[in-house]
Amino acid sequence: MDSIIDVFFSQGISKYNFLKRVKASGDGHLELIPKQSYGKGTGLLKAAGKSLLVSTTNFTFLRSIDHIPRNLPEYFHINLCQGTLRGIGGSHINRDHDYSRHIPAGFSHYSAGVSFQPGFFDTFFSSRYGVALDELAQAIDALGRFPLIPDAAVILKQISKASFAGDIGNVWFEAKTVELVSVILKWHRRLAATADPPLKEDDRLGILEAIRYIEEHSSGTLTLDRLAKQAAMGMSKFTAAFKAHTGLPAASYVRRFRMEKAMELLKTTSIPLGEIAGIVGYKYYSRFSTLFREQFGLMPREFRKRE
After folding, report:
1. In the chain, domain spans
2. How much is the pTM?
3. Homologous superfamily of 201-306
4. C-alpha distance from residue 278 to each of 94, 260, 261 (Å)
């Protein structure tokens, strides 16, 4: 199958001595499994046409690994990472670009991503709508500095859980990727229009520390004062810096994180609804259910039934 997998992923993967390849059934999908001595978990690559690929990975590495992908064709990658890393990230890899990666022992990584070659962008954006390829590259490069785009995260989660295949799968994945790119371009243009100077490195690290604290203490009381102290900032500076970095006020970010965590618990566990409310930081179930419905359009009980 002459797909994006055959163009560069298969050749690149064959050079990674810590992975073994297992062909998944149907439509040229490729399942990746680490060699037992290196780690555990699995990854699934789904090709949609010749230039678009979606992937889901869930690896825990038992040994430290260094690898150097070489001679990759030019492509773009947008991903959502959770666990050790969290947020939206992206990269624009230039043709024949050499770079190395170090993966430490004990590293656990879950991600959902989209990779596509420039030809895909040309087909759906440049030729039809006149959007410049350079703007896409700049937007994707900026994702590392501003890692939270909630609408993009929702799309990537939908892609990671999709079971479409064949021609219908190609249409669905292409449509979602177009939607994803449009969301990122819209975010990038809005960011450029505000013309706010980027955060200083110390301030950026402070906001990341506050985000880490939110993720680790979402079941407790999360006040703005506590988060500002975690970021080592005064209240007014923290409020402005947090929104500049994430695109959301801190309170909205906390609520969104709690609701997404509750959604995962509803989908993957049989924990009683009242207990889930407490796990995500709400003393009263009525308050939790109201916020959940505002976020997802369904009461928690209705959502669990659908899932």
Report:
1. 4-194, 201-306
2. 0.62
3. Homeodomain-like (1.10.10.60)
4. 47, 14, 12
